[in-house]
Predict the structure.
Amino acid sequence: MPLPCPACKQQLGVDLLFLMQHPVAQCPHCKSVMEFDVPDDVKKQVAAAFKNIEDIKAEYKDIATFGDHKSKLI
Ligand SMILES: [Zn+2]
């Protein structure tokens, strides 16, 4: 999900995962420094969602491909 800079409204080009790993970031456009406080319950939900995705990939790895292995389809 694209996230705009709260100051200049231009796209930051980062997502929730990036902000969880880098809670203090500088806008590349207007140089504003922002601190994103991602609540612990949101972090847990995101971690659970990514684990769920990995579990699904593992379960169907023999019969499906997932984005980064498109060449397998040909
Ligand atoms: Zn900005």
Remarks:
- The two ends are 30 Å apart (CA to CA).
- Residues 32 and 48 are 31 Å apart (CA to CA).
